[in-house]
DNA sequence: ATGACTTCTAGTAGAAGA
């Protein structure tokens, strides 16, 4: 089963590019982020015509996640548990039913900039960086609950985390950024230290492998990128991993997203 | 260089992204 994640940066602006990529890459499942659309305006028929079941968790203007699947989806839930006051659409779960069922978590982790710190160095409560770290703590709690079930699951999407210096062309430029600060990377490590496998690094140790290039300052032409779109696999899911790749060439096309798809192949 | 691009919503600028 081929499962992909793709931050499309707006479904209206990316419809053609997404459609073309689906036709070529033929993922069984696509986890989408930043659909920037309410559920009613998502062009679901266009994907249903390609054979996908479409489940969205949308929001006006910003954020929004979705799952497209050629295999049946069950037990769909929307929103990351742990804070009923959080209205941002960044999390969707479903169980994809193949030979073995896999619980899918599609996520759009908060960016976290600008970083605002109190005098004691802790994030200012109510600020964007505090929201990011709090969101990651809720994600940790959700991962612990799923691990306790001992089922195959994965958490994939735009993490807005640069895990290591080798995941950025210019790591020094990101030192104080919410994507690379020690607190952000530590929270990502805490997830991995639960026993989750980062699929790309399990298959490829090469530096300079990126999934995002800024629109500005010729970042793509200079290969000035960062790797921030990730798959974390539960132990039972990691057993099935046979491949993980980044569809880098997509970034050089007409009217691209600033992210490219990342995908795993699972033998399930 | 509190910038460059691109998206969204709104309605001619502004917010947000990373």
Question: What structural keywords apply?
Answer:
14 strands; manganese; alpha+beta; single chain; double-stranded DNA 3'-5' DNA exonuclease activity; DNA-binding; 268 residues; 6-stranded mixed β-sheet; Exodeoxyribonuclease-3
Task: Explain the overall architecture.
The structure is a single chain. By secondary structure, this protein is of the alpha+beta class. The chain has a single domain (2-266), classed as Deoxyribonuclease I, Chain A (4-Layer Sandwich). 23% of the residues lie in helices and 26% in strands. The chain has helices at 11-25, 44-48, 128-148, 182-193, 199-203, 235-238, and strands spanning 2-7, 29-33, 53-57, 65-69, 73-78, 91-97, 101-108, 153-158, 197-198, 212-213, 225-226, 229-233, 241-246, 262-266. Helix 1 (11-25) links the parallel strand 1 (2-7) and strand 2 (29-33). The radius of gyration is 17 Å and the shape is globular. It starts with a strand and ends with a strand. The relative contact order is 0.16. It binds one DNA strand of 18 nucleotides through residues 9-10, 12-13, 34, 36, 60-62, 111-113, 160, 174, 177-179, 212, 214-219, 226, 228, 258. It comes from Thalassovita taeanensis. The record marks 160 as: Transition state stabilizer. Residues 4-259 form the Endonuclease/exonuclease/phosphatase domain. Belongs to the DNA repair enzymes AP/ExoA family.
């Amino acid at each position: 089963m081929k499962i992909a994640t793709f931050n499309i940066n707006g479904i209206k602006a990316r419809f053609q590019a997404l459609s073309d990529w689906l036709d070529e890459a033929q993922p069984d499942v696509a986890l989408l982020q930043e659909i920037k659309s309410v559920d009613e305006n998502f062009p679901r028929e266009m994907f249903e015509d390609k054979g996908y079941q479409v489940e969205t968790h949308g929001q006006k203007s910003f954020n929004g996640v979705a799952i497209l699947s050629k295999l049946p989806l069950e037990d769909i839930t929307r929103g990351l548990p742990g804070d009923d006051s959080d209205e941002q659409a960044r999390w969707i779960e479903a169980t994809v039913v193949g030979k073995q069922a896999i619980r899918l978590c599609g996520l759009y982790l908060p960016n976290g900039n600008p970083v605002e710190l109190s005098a004691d160095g802790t994030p200012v409560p109510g600020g964007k960086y505090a929201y990011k770290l709090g969101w990651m703590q809720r994600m940790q709690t959700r991962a612990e609950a799923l691990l306790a079930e001992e089922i195959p699951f994965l958490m994939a999407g735009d993490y807005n985390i640069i895990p290591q210096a080798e995941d950025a062309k210019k790591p020094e430029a990101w030192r104080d950024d919410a994507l690379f600060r020690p607190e952000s990377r530590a929270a990502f490590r805490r997830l991995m230290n639960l026993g989750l496998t980062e699929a790309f690094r399990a298959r490829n140790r090469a530096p300079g492998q990126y999934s995002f290039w800024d629109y500005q300052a010729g970042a793509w032409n200079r290969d000035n990128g960062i790797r921030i779109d990730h798959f974390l696999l539960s132990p039972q899911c990691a057993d099935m991993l046979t491949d993980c790749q980044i569809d880098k060439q997509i970034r050089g096309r007409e009217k691209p997203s600033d992210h490219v798809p990342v995908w795993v192949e699972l033998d399930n």
